[in-house]
Write a structure and sequence with these properties.
InterPro entries: ADH-like_C, ADH-like_N, ER, GroES-like_sf, NAD(P)-bd_dom_sf, Quin_OxRdtase/zeta-crystal_CS, Zn-ADH-like_protein
GO molecular function, one term: zinc ion binding
Helix content: 25-40%
Order of helices and strands: EEEHEEEEHHEHEHEHEHEHEHHEHE
CATH class of the largest domain: Alpha Beta
Pfam families: ADH_N (PF08240), ADH_zinc_N (PF00107)
Largest sheet: 7 strands, mixed
Structural class: alpha/beta
Number of domains: 2
Protein name: NADPH:quinone oxidoreductase family protein
Radius of gyration: 20 Å
Domain Enoyl reductase (ER): 11-322
CATH superfamily of the largest domain: Medium-chain alcohol dehydrogenases, catalytic domain
Number of helices: 11
Length: 324
């Protein structure tokens, strides 16, 4: 097998494409022949030693992937060799094969392409957990999605619409806004040339959104929080801007708003049965055509460094997927 090995987490430039022995699965594990793996923001942080999870060295990055079960550990009963699966295991995806925890492998129907499956769990599970569980979004409410043309943003738009919400999508360019409208956004804001708070007020008749979905952080966080309606919910997804904001806590006090943290990884570990139910519902929605990952481009696995560079341009719409 071959894989991108991180022996020194100082950045993408230190990754090396190496031939490694193909491992054999132990109890509770499967060997997956990887067909596709998506590039997520945590995949950048983890090779820079900036992510909250720091795997022992050396490790293979690539948090999310899909492929074919090539071998089973001795006690694995719910999967079979030759079965298509998707997995969000945190590492291991940027290679030709990996060992995956069997409990984290999502069996795929035959009509679920590997590229879509590799771009599915992290963004859609995060957005479902955020909007349904943590945000309690109801039909008829208004959801403001920041970074709306990215992987989690496009997933959030589709899920919010599936819940019957009105969606305002905020993105950094006109072509990204056009993409957001094409997947269901009711209104868009280009925050590079519009003041976010004023544009949100105009789009909501001065009332403000019921929910803010924020995977960006940085300078957009405070105006987004200030824009919320009475009893609004501000969902903290991540900090793609690179800056963790400091928010004035008098704002939620005065408006009865809630600041709510969202982290699928912790949720799935603490509440595995609930997490499994989320994935099952999302797979059903995909089969019904209600949701579908937005894939910016497919790139060969050997071009991972170029994919990282492209992600750094902030021009990605949806997800970049590496393929073998």
């Amino acid at each position: 097998m071959h894989a991108w090995l991180c022996e020194n987490p100082v950045g993408v430039e230190a990754l090396q494409w190496k031939e490694l022995p193909t491992p054999q699965p132990r109890a509770g594990e499967v060997l997956v022949e990887i067909k596709a793996a998506s590039l997520n923001f945590p995949d950048l942080l983890i090779v820079q030693n900036k992510y909250q999870i720091k795997p022992p060295l050396p490790f293979v990055p690539g948090s999310e992937y899909a492929g074919i079960v090539a071998a089973l550990g001795p006690d694995v009963k719910h999967l079979k060799v030759g079965q298509n699966v998707a997995c969000l295991s945190g590492t291991g995806g940027f290679g030709t094969h990996t060992i995956a925890p069997a409990a984290l492998c999502l069996p795929l129907p035959d009509a679920f392409p590997h590229a879509d499956a590799a771009a599915f769990i992290m963004t859609y599970a995060t957005s479902h957990h955020a909007l349904v569980d943590r945000g309690q979004v109801k039909a008829g409410e208004t959801v403001l999605v920041l970074g709306a043309a990215g992987g989690v943003g496009t997933a959030a738009i589709q899920i919010a619409k599936a819940l019957g919400a009105r969606v305002i999508a905020a993105a950094s360019s006109d072509d990204k806004c056009e993409l957001c409208r094409s997947i269901g956004a009711d209104a868009t804001i280009n925050y590079t040339r519009e003041k976010l708070r004023e544009a949100v007020a105009a789009a909501t008749g001065g009332r403000g959104p019921d929910v803010v979905y924020d995977p960006v952080g940085g300078d957009l966080a405070e105006p987004a929080l200030r824009s919320l309606a009475w009893r609004g919910r501000y969902l903290v997804i991540g900090f793609a801007s690179g800056t963790i904001p400091s928010l004035p806590l008098n704002l939620p006090l005065l408006k009865g708003t809630s600041i709510v943290g969202v982290f699928w990884g912790s949720f799935s570990r603490h509440e595995p049965q609930a997490a499994a139910a989320v994935l099952a519902e999302l797979a059903g929605w995909y089969g019904q055509g209600r949701i579908k990952p937005v894939i910016d481009r497919l790139m060969p696995m050997a071009e991972l460094k170029a994919a990282y560079e492209y992600m750094g341009t902030r021009g990605v719409k949806g997800k970049v997927v590496m393929v073998n």
